[in-house]
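Appendix B. Chain record.
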Amino acid sequence: MKRMWKLIVLTVTALVFGMVAIGQAAEPVTPKVKTEIPADLLKEAKISVEKAQEIAVKNASGTLESIELEKEKGALVFTFGIRDGKILNEVLVNAVDGKVVAVEKLDEKAQAEDKAKDEKEKGSGTSKEVGK
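Structure tokens predicted for this chain:
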């Protein structure tokens, strides 16, 4: 009788741990997305980040890496960085009307130049607004 109880306890324990392991494996893995969305600019946006993202992913394939909200050429835009291999697609979605402003494909050289420009702007304290 003692042996049977041990067998039952071991079986139940194995089942419980098996279920926990399956549950953990089934959880989706969400990649980290760099997000830069200033609260003051978000108040000006007429569409949600989620709606803008839905529009952006229809215009470029790959994995979402970053989301920014900024003023570019006088317009408030969400900029989505979507990586497709070595190419980074930057999809700019107007934060007021939801129209795609631009889709830019950046190769590795252009990405390095863009990063250097961003770091220079941050270091000098200048505005991120471009093209004015």
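Further analysis of this model is presented in Appendix C.
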